[in-house]
Write a structure and sequence with these properties.
Layout: E1 2-5, E2 14-18, E3 24-28, H1 30-40, H2 42-45, E4 49-56, E5 60-67, H3 75-86, H4 88-93, E6 105-106, H5 114-123, H6 125-134, H7 136-139, E7 141-147, E8 150-156, E9 166-168, H8 177-192, E10 196-199, H9 204-215, E11 219-223, H10 237-243, E12 247-251, H11 264-278, H12 280-284
Parallel strand pairs: 9-10, 10-11, 11-12
Antiparallel strand pairs: 1-5, 1-6, 2-3, 4-5, 7-8, 8-12
C-alpha cells in the first residue's frame, strides 16, 4: 500500500464530483490522467512489480503494488522513479517546482484479509472526502479543548462532552463472563436510551460493549493515546459515525506521536481521564473552542 501526497497538499490531480445518484467520484485533471498512466506503466520499467488498485484524490493518491519476485532495486527506487516521471508535466509548467512531497508512506499488507480491506478503503476515498466536505465541523481537529482540568485535542461532535449523561465503560479483570454479559446488557440499554458512552476501548469486553452500543444507535466519546494533527481522521466505520455526529475522539496528550505503544500506565491514565470526563466537575469544565 503506497500513499503519496502532493506538495503543500495542492489539489492538482482532480476534483471531487457527485453524480445524479449521489455517488462521489474524482474527475481527474490532465495531470491526474498522466499520473494514472505512469502508475499503470510501472511494470514496464520493473517487471517484478505489478500495479494493482489506484485511487487518485485531488491532493494525494493511494495505490497497491504487488512485488511478484525479488526486485533489483528497493521499493523506494520504484516509487522515486514513478514520482519523477509523473511530475514532469507539472515541473515544466511551473518553472521546475516539484509536484510531490519528498517522502511517501508504505504499508506491507501481510495479515489475513488486509488486502481486501485496503482495496475497500481505497475505493471508498471519494465518498469519505464528500462526507468530510459536507460535515467540516465534525472532522475539524480542535486543539484547545478544556475538559476535566486538561487542555486536549478533539475531533468529532464536541457537544457530546456537554451531555448530562456520560457513562464510563470499564470492566474489572475480576468479573466473570456472566457478570460481563449482565453489565453489557445494561450499557447497551443505557446507550439506546441516550446515555453517551466514554471509553478508551482497551479490553476485549469494553470493545464488545462499545460495538454493541453503537450498533444499537448509541454515541461514543473515545479516548486515544496517540496525538492528533490537522490531517487526522478516523478509520473504518468510525468515519461514518463521526459524520453522523455520534462520535467524539479525544486525545489527552495531543502532541504525542501518531504511533505510540500502549502501556499499562497509559491504560490507567486513559481510564482515569474517562472517569474525570464523566464526573460532574469534568462535564462542567468542558468548553469547546
Amino acid at each position: 500500500m503506497i500513499t503519496i501526497v502532493t506538495k503543500n497538499r495542492r489539489p492538482a490531480l482532480g476534483s471531487l464530483k457527485v453524480d445524479d445518484e449521489g455517488k462521489a467520484y474524482i474527475e481527474l485533471s490532465d495531470l491526474g490522467h498522466h499520473v494514472e498512466d505512469c502508475w499503470n506503466a510501472i511494470s514496464k520499467f520493473h517487471p517484478e512489480v505489478l500495479p494493482l488498485d489506484l485511487q487518485i484524490m485531488p491532493d494525494h493518491l493511494h495505490g497497491l503494488l504487488f512485488v511478484t519476485s525479488t526486485i533489483e532495486c528497493k521499493l523506494g527506487g520504484v516509487v522515486r522513479g514513478f514520482k519523477a516521471v509523473s511530475a514532469k508535466p507539472f515541473k515544466l509548467a511551473n518553472g521546475g517546482e516539484g509536484l510531490w512531497e519528498e517522502n511517501y508512506h508504505d504499508r506491507i499488507l501481510s495479515g489475513n484479509g488486509q488486502l481486501n480491506l485496503m482495496r475497500a478503503y481505497i475505493a471508498d476515498n471519494p465518498r469519505r472526502l464528500a462526507l468530510r466536505r459536507a460535515n467540516p465541523q465534525m472532522f475539524k481537529v480542535r486543539r484547545e479543548v478544556a475538559v476535566a482540568g486538561k487542555t486536549i485535542a478533539a475531533q468529532g461532535n464536541i457537544f457530546l462532552l456537554q451531555h448530562p449523561s456520560l457513562l464510563q465503560v470499564q470492566f474489572s479483570r475480576s468479573l466473570t463472563i456472566e457478570e460481563i454479559k449482565r453489565q453489557e446488557a445494561i450499557y447497551v440499554d443505557k446507550a439506546r436510551k441516550g446515555d453517551i458512552l466514554v471509553s478508551p476501548r482497551i479490553s476485549e469486553a469494553e470493545k464488545r460493549v462499545v460495538d454493541a452500543a453503537l450498533e444499537a444507535g448509541g454515541r461514543l466519546v473515545m479516548i486515544v493515546h496517540e496525538g492528533m494533527d490537522e490531517y487526522t481522521k478516523p478509520s473504518g466505520r468510525y468515519f461514518d459515525l463521526m459524520a453522523q455526529g455520534r462520535l467524539l475522539i479525544v486525545a489527552p496528550w495531543p502532541d504525542a506521536p501518531a504511533k505510540v505503544d500502549l502501556t499499562r500506565a497509559l491504560c490507567l491514565a486513559m481510564n482515569d481521564f474517562a472517569a474525570s470526563i464523566c464526573s460532574s466537575n469534568g462535564r462542567d469544565g468542558a468548553r469547546p473552542s
